[in-house]
Amino acid sequence: MQKLPQISDAEWQVMKAIWSQAPCTANQVIEYLSEIVTWQPKTIKTLINRLLKKKVLGFKIDPQDKKTYHYYPLLSEKECVRAESQSFLHRVFDGLPQIMLANFIEECELSREDIAGLKQILEEKEQKKTT
Amino acid sequence: MQKLPQISDAEWQVMKAIWSQAPCTANQVIEYLSEIVTWQPKTIKTLINRLLKKKVLGFKIDPQDKKTYHYYPLLSEKECVRAESQSFLHRVFDGLPQIMLANFIEECELSREDIAGLKQILEEKEQKKTT
DNA sequence: TCAAATAGATTACGGATGTAATATGTTTTT
DNA sequence: AAAAACATATTACATCCGTAATCTATTTGA
């Protein structure tokens, strides 16, 4: 468990675009995000550069097209989600997942199928403890 | 759903102290937090002042002791937790609580009792939908 | 009463963040 | 080959944040 660099709100959007498309160009990120945010392309390039500096992204150059970088994540979505989740859990719920889960289940809209799915997951988790 | 002011990590610690003790003095906050963090008293005073400026805290003066302020929250813990939770949910899980819940249940340590409790809450939620 | 202690108010300062614009260098296009 | 387009790199700038120190006014102890 090492310390991951801090990823800001805006940077998270960029990372989500890259995790779902990598390797991809800046323009692909910009196009992907055009559905989601209203940032100028320059803003997105800035965010990409900050993520490069933080070593959250890397890039390669295609010999065919030496002009355009192809970015890819250096950290997996899973580990970033985990780190961000732990941070949230500690900040708001003193690190107690039971409290947090109970709270979310009560506060969120969940369909009947969602509820069934979660019960399923809980049961599987229980099974694993037994065996 | 109005927009709450932004509460930073460090400010959350202060707010948790005040929610659990209000109304309380700066020194009570400092003492409470001495178990949890290693900040200088001055640092905590700064945080209290920022929270005053953001209108997250208010204070009263005791006629007996006109020197010391007694701080109290202007926002409930519940609404702040809700806002922070929504922010996290959107940043990391695209606002989808099912995904988030499934993820946490799988990743976190939960005792058998925790699991039973969560199943209970899920069942109650299901009941409410039916009726 | 005068000095020391203390509470709150103001100021500090470097780094992160949101949100870009400008500068520079390399391809294309004409 | 010169100009236009485009990609990346650098710079900008206000605000927030972590982490305090200093200033000011009041209270209290000697």
**Mean pLDDT over the full residue set of chain A:** 94
How many beta-strand segments of chain A? 2
Order of helices and strands of chain A: HHHEEHHH
Bulk shape of chain A: elongated
CATH class of the largest domain in chain A: Mainly Alpha
Q: Total helix count of chain A?
A: 6
Sheet having the most strands of chain A: 2 strands, antiparallel
Named CATH topology of the largest domain in chain A: Arc Repressor Mutant, subunit A
In what order do the strands lie side by side in the largest sheet of chain A?
A: 1-2
State the helicity of chain A in percent bands: 55-70%
Rg of chain A is: 19 Å
| CATH architecture verdict of the largest domain in chain A | Orthogonal Bundle
Return the structural class of chain A: mainly alpha
Greatest contact between two chains: A-B, 37 and 37 residues
Between the first and last Cα atoms of chain A, what is the distance in angstroms? 27 Å
Q: What's the name of the CATH homologous superfamily of the largest domain in chain A?
A: Winged helix-like DNA-binding domain superfamily/Winged helix DNA-binding domain
Task: Supply the number of structural domains of chain A.
Answer: 2
Overview of the molecule:
Two copies of one chain form a homodimer. The longest helix of chain A is centred in the C-terminal third of the chain and has 19 residues, at 112-130. The first copy, chain A, has six helices and two strands. The mean pLDDT of chain A is 94. By secondary structure, the first copy, chain A, is mainly alpha-helical. Helices cover 61% and strands 11% of the residues of chain A. The first copy, chain A, folds into two domains: 9-75, Winged helix-like DNA-binding domain superfamily/Winged helix DNA-binding domain (Arc Repressor Mutant, subunit A), CATH 1.10.10; 78-130, Orthogonal Bundle (Penicillinase repressor fold), CATH 1.10.4040. The radius of gyration of chain A is 19 Å and the shape is elongated. In chain A, α2 packs across α3 (41-53). The first copy, chain A, has a two-stranded antiparallel ribbon with strand order 1-2. The two termini of chain A are 27 Å apart. At the A-B interface, α1, α4, α5 and α6 of A face α1, α4, α5 and α6 of B. Chain A binds a DNA duplex (30 and 30 nucleotides) through residues 6, 8-11, 25-27, 39-40, 42-43, 45-50, 66-69.
